[in-house]
Specification:
The complex is a heterodimer of chains A (about 725) and B (about 230). Chain A is of the alpha+beta class. Chain A has 26 helices and 28 strands. Chain A has a seven-stranded mixed beta sheet with strand order 8-10-7-11-9-12-13. Chain A has a seven-stranded mixed beta sheet with strand order 23-25-22-26-24-27-28. Chain A has a six-stranded mixed beta sheet with strand order 1-2-3-6-4-5. Chain A is globular and about 85 Å long. Chain B has one domain: Rossmann fold (3-Layer(aba) Sandwich). In chain B, strands 2-1-3-4-11-10-9-6-7 form a nine-stranded mixed beta sheet, sandwiched between helices. A two-stranded antiparallel ribbon of chain B has the order 5-8. Chain B is globular. Classes of the chains: A alpha+beta (about 725), B alpha/beta (about 230).
């Protein structure tokens, strides 16, 4: 087949990109080469629209061992231990084939982590679906949950936290973001940079099939009515093989045989070989006849673009082939020497003794297109004005029940009970809390992780929204007593070719960067997913943030369940009663306008650090961050978890009851303290200039807002737990 | 007391079991499925996980592993063998234990704490155990125990039912049956009571900081019984 412009366009390349390829090669590429370019230059692999903006993110810090650019980020947690973590999207495949799409998303991110030598110790996920009334939502949700569980459970890695939301903007484009944390010794981290000449290039894992060809290009395409036709581009996962691959790789990694290792994720053998060569400033020569294939008569084009799962590429030290092969044989995995490193900085492929591709690595990586896309600045919307009569007929308890049982707030137990969250025997905080927490096996340390996104805030004002999620992630870690260390981000947006969507991206990233810089909470890894849209309509901008923190002594961990009757409840942080973009405004008043709540980074940091001080002094019995739904929703969840009630005090300043209870002002926590510690705690808060209000006291079994508004904990539990199970079983 | 845990390709609770056995005083060894002989053991454990990816049927391929010949012989000589979760599935496939495990009734994986009532204390596993019901943890997709009417009668007559899913007071009814198991059965013995298979994971309940401590009661009692 002779390549021409139309074929290039069919591969998702633009006219000018095709011209650039011909110029760089000084000839017309053959079909295999064109396939390789299209895979390397698509948005998913090249970050061509996002690169310019991502480079402004803070990525360094005293605990950062490895920032973005490797398979995953690495942070130092002391005593020679390090945590490797990353988040990745698998949105498009999951919409087309929810089970396999979600499963391979989980498989892919775990591979990224164990490629670096770390044993995965925790999984998290952030999943977003269309309106519950939409005809596809229920099946997509079921399929995605089964897929995540199917893969993670089989791997024996606990799924410790997650986030689920419903919004009609995801009707035609759901989001599935998966995150993994792994544990490694600092001196046993493996990287993807090849080094040395004539070193054997090894293929291990599953055989290569025709599945997933052009998966990365599909991830960079816009959905239309023909999307079902893309089903064959979704990869099929086999967690059993991945479990074997994990054990085999970790076994080989105990020695010193490996120079570089890279998993075959998006764009398979193409991107793994090219990334290793590029980082090492070397060339790689591969004999494609040596690649273990599952199907007959696969062409070089298909072998290079296959996204078959559970495969790895390794550059070995000379003479270590037999030792390595023995390990992979033990685990019944394919092992093949398929090529070697060279010094000509080219990717050279041979098939049936003919050279089928010859491309300078630089042209694929350093010369890949970078776009400074046009983007539109967004304005801060005007604050909403709520008239007194709008509150008139509202009853607090009715609204509380309505919000507690709403799809975005209700208990997600139906989901997380399908994930094995206790395997490995170190999960000390299960899903449903502020963060999931796992112990560092055999030590007193524990690692906390949370995953957050606030599409509504980001949609209302991307800059504030971007800041807010980083702050929320930070708060979720603080609330369990963990010192926040670093984040990973999964940036889900619409088309970068649309100025508004691009503007949302640029400003969210800016907000995210500002907050993470201020909080010293750097970004160490991440992933961008553009083109999340159906036809011309993009999803609400949904950056998801995965935060990781350290608890030095896990006995000091705090949970959110109320502990003891008569204990005092404080709200830490100032309650102004901001209802803009609150669940109350949107779900009760049907008011969708207004700016997101304001972020004050100074208060955020100061409040958080002071809470940590109180936790260190063992003065906090339970704590929970105040987010969606405001104080009353946060408190209700603490009541539900602890099966205890609370009696509220009247606020000691003038504020509308609804604004006080449902306002979503940021930087706040509810904490439970013992009566006799009241003076001690409030002195510390005052000394650190942290605002607090007395919220009330813990009681046996009733939430008492005032004389007229009360509700038993059993009723609260009912409101909170039933919606999702009923919805799924209807 | 010497114990060993067998690792099959796809086992994933092998380490957890090793940790638990050692915590309660067993000298534990890990055994690879391709080995031929068992080390000297007072207890052999088949751990949970997804041996051979649950392909064909859960436990079926593993039941034909090389080491299983020795395990079956060990059982026939009266050796103590305990299968947890996937280990239980493997023991059923070897026919050392009666019955089968089907897909959970609601077709979903379940991971949560449950209560089980100890039905038979006249055996090395539960003899002298102080509690009548234990809070344990389950995590499985295929834990729906089933057998024929004749078999039910037989295992009942032989006192082979080890555990029932129950409420915390030991009451057994459909409300506390998590997976649709016939008669709420959560674990069974062979006729001789030296082989035990059960779905709940005692090794995940050995620490107050985890899900609870009833697993500790089980292991402490077990090692005393075997002494």
């Amino acid at each position: 087949m002779i390549v021409n412009e139309q074929i290039a366009i069919d591969h998702g390349l633009k006219k000018n990109e095709y011209k650039k390829i011909c110029d760089l090669l000084e000839r017309v590429p053959n079909i295999t080469e064109l396939g390789i370019f299209s895979a390397m230059w698509n948005e998913h692999c090249s970050y061509k629209s996002s690169k310019l903006h991502l480079k402004n993110l803070p990525t360094k810090g005293k605990n950062v061992i490895q920032g973005p650019g490797e398979n995953a980020g690495v942070i130092d947690i002391g005593d020679d231990d390090a945590i490797v973590f990353k988040i990745e999207s698998h949105n498009h495949p999951s919409f087309i084939e929810p089970y396999q799409g979600a499963a391979t998303g989980v498989g892919g991110i775990m591979r990224d982590v164990f490629t670096m030598g770390a044993r995965p110790i925790a999984n998290l996920n952030s999943i977003h679906f269309g309106s519950p009334q939409h005809k596809k939502t229920k099946n997509l949700l079921r399929g995605v949950v089964h897929g995540i569980g199917g893969y993670g459970n089989c791997m024996g890695v606990p799924t410790i936290a997650g986030q689920t939301s419903f919004d009609e903007s995801y009707n035609g484009n759901i989001l599935v973001n998966a995150m993994t944390l792994g544990l490694v010794k600092k001196n046993k981290i493996f990287y993807s940079k090849a080094a040395g000449l004539g070193k054997p290039v090894i293929y291990v894992g599953s055989k290569t099939g025709r599945d997933g060809i052009h998966g990365a290009s599909m991830a960079s395409a816009i959905f239309d009515e023909k999307i079902e036709e893309k089903k064959p581009t979704v990869q099929v996962g086999d967690p059993f093989t991945e479990k074997l691959l994990l054990e085999a790789c970790l076994e080989l990694m105990t020695g010193d045989s490996i120079i570089a290792i890279q998993d075959m994720g998006a764009a398979g053998l193409t991107s793994s070989s090219i990334e290793m060569a590029s980082k090492g400033k070397l060339g790689i020569e591969i004999n494609l006849n040596k690649v273990p294939c599952r199907e007959t008569k696969m062409t070089p084009y298909e072998i290079m673009l296959s996204e078959s799962q559970e495969r790895m590429l390794i550059v070995l030290e000379n003479g270590k082939e037999d030792l390595a092969k023995k390990i992979f044989d033990k685990w019944n995995l394919d092992f093949a020497v398929i090529g070697k490193t060279t010094n000509n900085k080219k990717i050279e492929l041979y098939f049936d003794e003919k050279k089928v591709a010859d491309i300078p690595v630089d042209t694929l990586v350093e010369n890949s297109p970078i776009y400074d896309r046009k983007w539109k600045k967004s304005k801060l919307p005007k604050k909403i004005k709520i008239k007194k009569e709008d509150f008139k007929n509202l009853k607090v308890i009715n609204i509380l029940n309505k919000i507690l049982s709403s799809p975005n707030i209700c208990s997600k137990k139906w989901i997380w009970e399908q994930y094995d969250h206790t395997v490995m025997g170190d999960t000390i905080q299960k899903p449903g809390g502020d963060s999931g927490v796992v112990r560092v096996h055999g030590t007193n340390k524990a690692v906390a992780a949370s995953i957050d996104s606030s599409a509504v805030y980001c949609w209302a004002h991307p800059l504030s929204g971007g800041k807010q999620i980083v702050c929320e992630s930070w708060r979720n870690l603080i609330a369990v007593g963990a010192k926040p260390i670093a984040i990973t981000n999964c940036l889900n947006f619409g088309s970068p070719e649309n100025e508004e969507n691009m503007g949302e991206f640029v400003e969210c990233v800016q907000g995210l960067g500002e907050a993470s810089l201020y909080l010293d909470f750097p970004v160490v890894s991440g992933n961008v997913s553009f083109y999340n849209q159906t036809k011309n309509i993009g999803i609400k901008p949904t950056p998801a943030i995965g935060g990781v923190g350290l608890i030095k002594n896990y006995k000091n961990m705090v949970t959110m369940d109320l502990k003891q009757t008569d204990n005092i409840l404080l709200v830490v942080g100032k309650t102004e009663g901001d209802l803009n973009q609150s669940l109350f405004a949107r779900d009760v008043l049907n008011e969708k306008n207004g700016p997101p709540p304001e972020i004050n980074l100074f208060n955020e940091k100061n409040n958080g650090e002071t809470i940590l001080k109180l936790i260190d002094k063992k003065l906090i019995k339970s704590s929970h961050d105040v987010s969606l739904g405001g104080i009353i929703i946060a408190l209700s969840k603490m009541c539900i978890k602890g099966k205890k009630g609370a009696t509220l005090k009247k606020p000691n300043y003038l504020i509308n009851e609804f604004e006080y209870l449902f306002g979503e002002d940021q930087g706040r926590y509810i904490i439970e303290i013992e009566k006799n510690n009241f003076k001690n705690v409030t002195e510390i808060l005052e000394k650190n200039s942290v605002h607090y209000d007395e919220l009330g006291t813990v009681n046996e079994n009733e939430l008492v807002i005032n004389d007229k508004s009360k509700i038993t904990i059993d009723e609260l539990i009912k409101s909170h737990t039933n919606w999702l199970t009923n919805y799924m079983n209807k | 007391m010497d114990s060993c845990v067998i690792t099959f390709p796809g086992s994933n609770c092998d380490r957890d079991m090793d940790v638990a056995l050692k915590q309660f005083g067993f000298k534990n060894k890990m055994v690879w499925h391709n080995d031929i002989e068992l080390p000297k053991s007072d207890l052999v454990v088949l751990p949970g996980g997804f041996s051979y990816g649950d392909y064909l049927r859960c436990g079926s391929v593993a039941s034909k592993s090389k080491i299983m010949k020795s395990v079956i012989n060990f059982a026939k000589l009266g050796g103590k063998i305990m299968g947890i979760c996937n280990g239980f599935q493997i023991l059923l496939e070897t026919e050392l234990l009666p019955g089968v495990l089907l897909r959970n009734k609601y077709l979903e994986f379940i991971c949560k704490n449950v209560f089980v009532k100890v039905n038979n204390k006249d055996n090395p596993y539960f003899k002298n155990i102080k509690k009548d019901t234990l809070e344990l943890h389950i995590a499985h997709n295929e834990g729906n125990y089933f057998c024929s009417k004749e078999q039910i009668k037989e295992i009942n007559d032989n006192n082979q039912i080890a555990l029932y899913y129950s409420d915390k007071d030991g009451k057994i009814n459909e409300n506390n049956n998590p997976n649709g198991s016939i008669k709420n059965i959560a674990g069974v013995f062979n006729k001789e009571k030296n082989v035990l298979g059960m779905m709940p994971h005692p090794e995940r309940m050995i620490d107050l900081d985890l899900s609870g401590e009833d697993g500790s009661i089980f292991f402490k009692n077990l090692i005393n019984n075997l002494k």
